Amino acid sequence: MGLPAWVKATFATSRHHAHTMIARPRPYPYDTRVTLDIIDGGAPDVYGGYTSIIPRGAYDFGDTPNCVRVEQIIMENIGANDTYVLEFYASADDVTYSDLGAIRFVRTAPFTRSFEVEQNLHCLMIDTETLYARLKDALGGTTTVSFSLLISRHLPIVPGIPMSPGPWPTG
Q: What's the topology of domain 22-156?
């Protein structure tokens, strides 16, 4: 008896992804004393302003494309008993924003350790774009959420062109 079709499809998709991109995950920010903080809009179900998360040019891998992608969001400090929506955007000019994806999460009790949210966003061309985020929550008030990211460098694999040996910048 063979594998079910959905298992074969899952493996085929994973194998296809593995052969077309290379991911090298790293935490952001890399400095353990720093978190990314974002504030809601101050009222129930109202977004706060766009907050710069990863600035344009933050990474220079020494070759192209300089493409990074958010793989996980690590929630480090959020209020309890509230529902949140966190949206991510890319902008090349800091005026117009392209939607990269969003997550919704609920926190029903205080927590004492971080938790990870699996979230694959579209790639961000770090040479020309800045990553922005904005937050809203159900209760309103002035709520701050602190988080960090697990980002990956993505390189398309092109037959005949060797993989990049370039290291991650540690800044």
A: Jelly Rolls (2.60.120)
